């Protein structure tokens, strides 16, 4: 799976700058209620970003022209980058599915009708079809688990153990790859064929910045008085 993955493509500098400008504004707004920046600095940065968003300074294609027609979103089926991401997802899915299908067929051929373990806790009849695949005995206790069902339980239930031992981005995590090719392509290539209109995002972010300016609170406001009150140097009423 590691060998079949395509190397990530380098993003243009202007595209990275476009994304980071939006993230910078969101971080600034997220810290407005308890900001480490004084009001003058916060207001200056907020107004600068707001004006840059209005002028289209951070847009990778430059400021939009007033007489330019509205461009339709690109079709992912005609975008080479999106198609490449979809193919990468399909290759990853095939590499994951082929050995698992072979193992499942091997277990089903040699151990069909076998029961392996008995769970130490009671279960309802709703779990019977999930835990006793390949065993056609309606009177058997639900706690008995067949070999094929035990394989599925291990296949889908050990992902947490894999993430704990091998890390979150390990190649053995089957839950990440048991997806459709389109979802796998979206994970492999960020936003393929789903080009976001950053001009609209910047306009919405500009309104959010203007609203956050009224909620700004400096964390060091009257810090000298608060320290003196904490250690009893001045009364709590500040007089």
The main sheet comes to: 2 strands, antiparallel
Low-confidence stretches: 177-193
In total, how many beta strands?
2
Strand ordering within the main sheet: 1-2
Assembly type of the chains comes to single chain
Mean pLDDT: 77
Helix vs. strand class: mainly alpha
Give the strand content: under 5%
Number of helices: 10
Fraction of residues in helix: 40-55%
Which radius of gyration do the C-alpha atoms yield? 29 Å
Characterise the protein shown here:
- With 239 residues, this protein is mostly helical.
- It has helices spanning 13-30, 39-55, 80-110, 128-131, 147-157, 159-166, 174-177, 181-188, 198-213, 223-230; strands spanning 115-118, 144-146.
- Strands 1-2 form a two-stranded antiparallel ribbon.
- Helix 1 runs parallel beside helix 9 (198-213), helix 2 runs antiparallel to helix 9 and helix 3 packs across helix 8 (181-188).
- It is flat, with a radius of gyration of 29 Å.
Descriptive tags:
239 residues, mainly alpha, two-stranded antiparallel ribbon, flat, EMC3, transmembrane, membrane, transmembrane helix, EMC3/TMCO1
Question: How would you concisely characterize the structure shown here?
Answer:
Its main location: membrane. 52% of the residues lie in helices and 3% in strands. It is built from ten helices and two strands, in the order αααβαβαααααα.
């Amino acid at each position: 799976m590691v060998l079949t993955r395509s190397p990530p493509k380098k993003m243009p500098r202007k595209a990275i700058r476009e994304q980071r400008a939006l993230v910078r504004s969101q971080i600034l707004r997220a810290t407005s209620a308890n900001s480490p920046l004084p009001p003058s600095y916060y207001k200056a940065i907020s107004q600068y970003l707001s004006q840059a968003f209005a002028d289209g300074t951070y847009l990778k294609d430059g400021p939009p022209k007033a007489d330019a027609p509205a461009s339709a979103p690109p079709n992912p089926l005609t975008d080479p980058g999106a198609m490449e991401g979809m193919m990468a997802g399909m290759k990853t899915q095939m590499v994951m599915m082929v050995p698992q299908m072979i193992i499942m067929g091997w277990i089903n051929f040699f151990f069909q009708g076998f029961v392996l373990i008995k769970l130490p806790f009671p279960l309802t009849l709703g779990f019977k079809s999930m835990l006793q695949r390949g065993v056609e005995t309606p009177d058997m206790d639900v706690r008995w688990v067949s070999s094929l069902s035990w394989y599925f339980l291990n296949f889908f239930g050990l992902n947490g153990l894999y993430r704990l031992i091998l890390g979150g981005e390990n190649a053995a995590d089957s839950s990440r790859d048991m997806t459709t090719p389109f979802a796998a392509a979206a994970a492999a290539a960020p936003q393929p064929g789903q080009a976001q209109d950053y001009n609209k995002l910047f306009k919405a972010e500009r309104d959010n910045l203007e609203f956050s300016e009224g909620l700004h609170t400096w964390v060091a406001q009257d810090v000298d008085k608060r320290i003196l009150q904490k250690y009893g140097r001045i009364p709590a009423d500040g007089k």
